[in-house]
Amino acid sequence: MLKLGIIGTHIITDQMLDAAKTTGKYQLTAVYSRTMARAKEYGRPYGATEYYDDLHKFFEDGDFDVVYIASPNSIHYQQVRLAIENDKFIIVEKPAFVNPSQFEAIESLLAAHPKARLVEAARHIHTPLYKQALAKFNEMKKNHCQGGTITVMKYSSRYDKVLADDKPYPNIFTLKFAGGALMDLGVYAVYGAVTLFGQPASVLYFPTLAKTGVDAKGVALLNYKDFSVTLNFGKTANSHLDSEVYGLKDTLVFDSIFDTKKVTYYDANKQAHVLDAPVAKNSMTDEMNDFADLFNNPEDEEEVKKYQHWLDLARTVNSVMYSLRQSADLKFPADKDEE
Ligand SMILES: NC(=O)c1ccc[n+]([C@@H]2O[C@H](COP(=O)([O-])OP(=O)(O)OC[C@H]3O[C@@H](n4cnc5c(N)ncnc54)[C@H](OP(=O)(O)O)[C@@H]3O)[C@@H](O)[C@H]2O)c1
Question: What homologous superfamily does CATH list for 2-121?
Answer without folding.
Answer: NAD(P)-binding Rossmann-like Domain (3.40.50.720)
